[in-house]
Batch of 4 targets.
Target 1
Amino acid sequence: MGKILIVDDDKAFSCFLKDHIKKYYPLLQVQICTDPVRALPLIRKGEVDLLLVDYEMPVLDGEKVIKYAREVGIETSRIIILSSRDADYLHQHFPLGTCLAVMNKHETAQKAVLDMVFKSLQRKAADATAG
């Protein structure tokens, strides 16, 4: 419990997010993949507790990565879409039920929501370790 896969071609953002998670949520394991095509074999049911996917990437966009994740059995409640686009745009492309959340990478309020998700995952990982 507590495995996070970040699929984002923005290496600087991905590394920032990974460092943030490691600092504040030490029970969580984070893996970064900056190439969405190479990420596909890493996306397997039971091995990813949270999938963070950038919406706009070259070669294979986030929408296709998410479609693949759902096909291999990743629950929509374990998928978060990240983007530089505003939340209204993202909600039009990913209606309710398509994923857990859509978030703008650069909005502070959105990062607070992401922290709530990490905190919940950390708590579950702690419970799994204790039990």
Note: The longest helix spans residues 108-130.
Target 2
Amino acid sequence: MQHTNRHTELLQKYMDNACTQEEFGELMELIKNSPNPEAFDQAMKAFWDKSGEKDLPDGIEWSKMQRKIKLRLWALRRTKVKLAFATVILAVFCIGYLWKNRTAEVTAPVAYVTQHSLPGKTRVIVLADGSKITLNANSELTYPQVFNAKTREVYLKGEAYFEVAHKTHQPFIIHSGKIKTQVLGTTFTVSAYAADQPHNVTVLTGKVAVKDEDSKELVFLTRGQSATTEKGAAKFKLSALKTPEDAIAWLDDKLMFDNTDLKTVALKLGNKYGAHIVVSEHLAHQRITAVFQGQSLPGILNAITRLTRSGYKANDNTYTLY
């Protein structure tokens, strides 16, 4: 019994990376000089039970792992390669230990954080991997506290500018409505305020893959390229910006409209200020070119009505242009 307890003690120290050189040598000698594989059964079983309480997937359990270890050990014993015998028993045991504990980690609930930006305000969020996300006004980002999966996945409602930390083996994925955007490390914007509005991805640096989860269409975008969903359309509307930085003018509290119809202007203003803006059918297709910076919603609407020779009325949080 005392001999078996020493097996267990040394195995525990080895797995905890707390084994001295002398203790490691002792462990090797105990394994090499064991008269048969069963001599180590009790020590390994004790350590297996201690390594985690969750069941492994696909019915993997100690009895099955034990049989595999014994087969490997008996094969090595017949070759009389004692060093390989000692190495393999530890390697197999370590794999079982890491596999069991990794499974417990993967199946553990992921802790998510949700952050919001207020109407008319932006908000900067720095994630655990060093990625920086700036939320446009009236937006929401949900993300895990720690990225411990094979991918880094976040969920966006609204609009945001992403500066993603490069990680070759851990792609960054943004879920925004029916659009999924995947990158390794780059800068781009994603706009997805409401299901009935166009969703957009615009790249400033690097390359991204954008997929429509409904139609399964996949496009790749590089600097200055933009993909937009259109209601009822099975394909993205692709376009190119002469100045990609215009897509993030909102970082400086700017609203830029270049020959933009009032229906689209109303959507952008409503998203930014968290308001409902209605445009009469007569005005919906009228276009304006203007830049607004640091102005209130009533101030912008006053300017628009002067440009279009129209008027507006307010009722609580609803504004009607006529």
Note: The two ends are 91 Å apart (CA to CA).
Target 3
Amino acid sequence: MTLESALSFFVVVVIFGLTPGPGVFAILARALMDGARPCLALAFGMAISDILYLVAACLGLAVIATHWGELFTVIRIVGAAYLIYLGWKMWQAPTDVEAMERKAKSSGVALSFLQGFLISASNPKVILFYIAFLPTFMDLGALSSTDIVLASVLTLIGLMLGLMLIAVFASQARRYFRSHTAIRRLNRGAGSIMVGAGAFLATRN
């Protein structure tokens, strides 16, 4: 991978990270409820899952997406159900600021990472993105381990940058919601976004 192709690949990954989808909706909902910091582990989990798809695409495992469609359908439905469950939990979230802050602090990093990983892993079409764009940036016929490592690092940095930009902007908007009524609307709005993301994922073909 040349310097020019590496920079181009990085820009495309950042744009991909900003593109609306289940992962972006999850980051948006979490940042609106808990602020930007709790989104770090969530975004990291998504990035790691994406990197696994990237490596799979690099190693020629795209055949899984075409021949194991039933498995990916199960993964997609489970992921959609999980997003809807998270949305329901957000609807029932407390409406006082102190309780929200305690909830944010009590959310384990490992759990947030797992949530992010599952959200991204439940969208197998991510691999199609890498399958479509990788030939533009590297010679897959002469692919080296260095190329795979470089692409993985660029993907990690690019996705984290894109997702955390969304988290920061959403967190800034959150500061304007301090009353019980506003927080209730915020919780239900974020929950509706998450349920919508689950429904969107469930209806994807």
Note: Residues 145-174 form the longest helix (30 residues).
Target 4
Amino acid sequence: MNSIHNAGLTSHLDLNLLPVFDTLIRVRNVSRAAEELDMSQSAVSHALKRLRSFFGDPLFLKTGSGMQPTPRALELLAPVSSVLATVRGELLVREGFDAASARRSFGLCLTDMGELIFLPRLIAQLRRAAPGCTLRTLQVPMHQIQAVLESGEADLALGSLHSVPEGLFQQQLFARSFVTIVNRSNRTIGEVLSRDQFFAMEHILVSLSGRIEDAYDAVIDEGNAQGNGSRRVYLTTPHFLTVPMIIEQNPDLIATVPRELATKFATYKSIRMVETPVRVPPFGIRQFWHPRFQHDAANMWLRKLVKETFDTDVE
């Protein structure tokens, strides 16, 4: 069996080494881990040496893309995270999180749209409230989000996630409506996009999973299925930020995107917004976290900061 207890951790291993392991497996870099832990690089290297000796495994291997965990390190991830979550969540929660003096890196699962919507304002708030903290963003496939949040590699996932894994906690931040973007050079579209034009033209859909049914605006097809309305999907992509450039070079394509993004895309000379001619219910932007970190002081503080930053965000 691979449990930490069977490895003799509780009776033989210095528990002060666990935060080093936890940080290294998240940031994959000794110098960044040292900065987050407020330790010297030599101290982190020495701790890693002790961990390697104890577990009889190199744990991390140097590669061109950073330090990659070995299979043994990945086996240890869940039990180490569990021990640390217990300590942080049940024993230290009363001490709270001192944002003004804290030095750590917060990880956020975000799409490219999420980075455009969330990051500028969140960075400003974080730098003001926690000047010693930094941010990391991760683009994670939908089926891996729960594991990434459970391991602590990311603290939160932000966005409008479809097919959210069961067991994650969530909180709505704000709601957004959709609007359609078209190429200005397409003269067949006037100031108003008709319903017939909408369903006759070819569409770009954004879906993290690559499946049409998981697209951000899939509700359009769901809501109009009984009204004999079915879109002609030409391209499905996981990236929002490439959509205006594709439409710029392909004037016959259109896309329906969140209004906030469309407003930014309309700064492209070739792109303009038109109201979507079918009913599209607003979609909610939420933050998600794993129950393991429900009472973690740092996670609680971050959730509160995110909520306060976007709570009054209305269209």
Note: Residues 1-10 have pLDDT under 50 and may be disordered.
